Amino acid sequence: MSESDSPDDIGTSPDSLDLSPREPSARQRRQRRPWLAMIVLLLVVAAGGVVLTKFLTSAIDYYCNVDEIGAKEGCEAGRRLRIQGIVDVGSVTDNATATEFSMSFGGVSLPVVYEGEPGGIFKECIPVVVHGILRDGVFNGDRIEVKHSNEYEAENPDRIVGETDKGSECSQ
Amino acid sequence: MSNDRVTSTPFTKGLGFFVLLGIALLIILGIFVSPADVNQGESVRIMYAHVPGAWLAYLAFVMTAVSSAAYLWKRTRSLTWDRIAGASAEVGVLFMGISLVTGSLWGRLTWGTYWTWDARLTTTAFLFVTYIGYLAVRGLGGTHQQRARRSAVLALLAVLEIPLVHFSVELWNTLHQEASVAGRGTDVEMNGLMLFTLFLGVVVFTLMYVWLVLHRQRSLMLEDMLDDSGLDHALSERRAEATQAGR
């Protein structure tokens, strides 16, 4: 309605009943938000589906331990596996293209070849999960993830690392 | 704006002061005083935000469920409970986000990867997505009571995911730390100062949670009041037009 209209003019002049759409007020814009909520909800349902698929295909039993290869369902040699073991003392050798080491778990040892430099806090005596395929008794890894334990100990530069700690087997 | 239309009270102002003090103390202890870890080095300091973030997200989602149950309780139907539930879920999503981001950075430094689909990370992602969905459901429109009923039912279902997330590291083999690796015991062994800093982090995050929820539920109340007054305003406009047209 134009400002010149008086209440008495209603219905008497052509522009007194202005039916053209009004500019939405801030309040009406707020009420339109359900569309945004519905879009978010659709995205949530899609993301939930992806996460659920990942849960069923990847997350249940993320890895096989070294001693479970060929012994546990889903850990058959020849298929792509994720193997968990503890890096053996003195087994790590680097050459120009690959890192070679062996890892053990449950009294079984497995030689590993990894193309590249492992990231994270990779070192001897630490549990790692290696992704790859077992070929001719050697595990060819293309991804290494380092597990860290729930033990936390202060780093002490004065700690004496003697032969007892650096024996042929990991102290854990 | 009159004094009853603001979200702070002397209590929240005092609480806010202690939260700021606590954050400052946590930064000093977490970054400068507590020791580096023998295996993880300096990256262990991320724990002081990561763990309290996750615990407070759990607490926030449980609070959402409790408030929702209080709303649904026979003859209560108080929208205050609904707004506390909504505010708590928003803060919970924020804390879960903090935990996911810090966890991802920590993972890059220690595991060597930002993300992997192991059971703990996957269930946490599902929990996070669920509560974003919960907030979206709250925004679907309708009356305040409709919003409250829908979201209360969802909150009571969503909270059941928390045990699954928490015990995922026990139920399945996960990259995320758990107790059984290499025959270690189930007790968490932690340096005393590290444990104290972690404890302080949980206290500070808890106070921060209370401060945020108090303010947020009051601002949600003001939003509801604005909606209600908007309806009154629209009604009075229509009445005025009808009166004019009737002349």
UniProtKB/TrEMBL annotation, chain A:
<protein>
    <submittedName>
        <fullName>Unannotated protein</fullName>
    </submittedName>
</protein>
<dbReference type="InterPro" id="IPR036127">
    <property type="entry name" value="CcmE-like_sf"/>
</dbReference>
<keyword id="KW-0349">Heme</keyword>
<feature type="region of interest" description="Disordered">
    <location>
        <begin position="1"/>
        <end position="28"/>
    </location>
</feature>
<keyword id="KW-0812">Transmembrane</keyword>
<keyword id="KW-0408">Iron</keyword>
<dbReference type="GO" id="GO:0020037">
    <property type="term" value="F:heme binding"/>
</dbReference>
<dbReference type="InterPro" id="IPR004329">
    <property type="entry name" value="CcmE"/>
</dbReference>
<dbReference type="GO" id="GO:0017003">
    <property type="term" value="P:protein-heme linkage"/>
</dbReference>
<feature type="transmembrane region" description="Helical">
    <location>
        <begin position="35"/>
        <end position="56"/>
    </location>
</feature>
<dbReference type="GO" id="GO:0046872">
    <property type="term" value="F:metal ion binding"/>
</dbReference>
<dbReference type="InterPro" id="IPR012340">
    <property type="entry name" value="NA-bd_OB-fold"/>
</dbReference>
<dbReference type="Pfam" id="PF03100">
    <property type="entry name" value="CcmE"/>
</dbReference>
<keyword id="KW-0479">Metal-binding</keyword>
<keyword id="KW-1133">Transmembrane helix</keyword>
<dbReference type="GO" id="GO:0017004">
    <property type="term" value="P:cytochrome complex assembly"/>
</dbReference>
<keyword id="KW-0472">Membrane</keyword>
<dbReference type="GO" id="GO:0005886">
    <property type="term" value="C:plasma membrane"/>
</dbReference>
<keyword id="KW-0201">Cytochrome c-type biogenesis</keyword>
From TrEMBL, chain B:
<dbReference type="InterPro" id="IPR045062">
    <property type="entry name" value="Cyt_c_biogenesis_CcsA/CcmC"/>
</dbReference>
<dbReference type="InterPro" id="IPR002541">
    <property type="entry name" value="Cyt_c_assembly"/>
</dbReference>
<feature type="transmembrane region" description="Helical">
    <location>
        <begin position="192"/>
        <end position="214"/>
    </location>
</feature>
<dbReference type="GO" id="GO:0005886">
    <property type="term" value="C:plasma membrane"/>
</dbReference>
<keyword id="KW-0201">Cytochrome c-type biogenesis</keyword>
<keyword id="KW-0812">Transmembrane</keyword>
<feature type="transmembrane region" description="Helical">
    <location>
        <begin position="119"/>
        <end position="140"/>
    </location>
</feature>
<feature type="transmembrane region" description="Helical">
    <location>
        <begin position="53"/>
        <end position="73"/>
    </location>
</feature>
<feature type="transmembrane region" description="Helical">
    <location>
        <begin position="85"/>
        <end position="107"/>
    </location>
</feature>
<comment type="similarity">
    <text>Belongs to the CcmC/CycZ/HelC family.</text>
</comment>
<dbReference type="InterPro" id="IPR003557">
    <property type="entry name" value="Cyt_c_biogenesis_CcmC"/>
</dbReference>
<feature type="domain" description="Cytochrome c assembly protein">
    <location>
        <begin position="18"/>
        <end position="176"/>
    </location>
</feature>
<dbReference type="GO" id="GO:0017004">
    <property type="term" value="P:cytochrome complex assembly"/>
</dbReference>
<dbReference type="GO" id="GO:0020037">
    <property type="term" value="F:heme binding"/>
</dbReference>
<protein>
    <submittedName>
        <fullName>Unannotated protein</fullName>
    </submittedName>
</protein>
<keyword id="KW-1133">Transmembrane helix</keyword>
<dbReference type="Pfam" id="PF01578">
    <property type="entry name" value="Cytochrom_C_asm"/>
</dbReference>
<dbReference type="GO" id="GO:0015232">
    <property type="term" value="F:heme transmembrane transporter activity"/>
</dbReference>
<feature type="transmembrane region" description="Helical">
    <location>
        <begin position="12"/>
        <end position="33"/>
    </location>
</feature>
<feature type="transmembrane region" description="Helical">
    <location>
        <begin position="152"/>
        <end position="172"/>
    </location>
</feature>
<keyword id="KW-0472">Membrane</keyword>
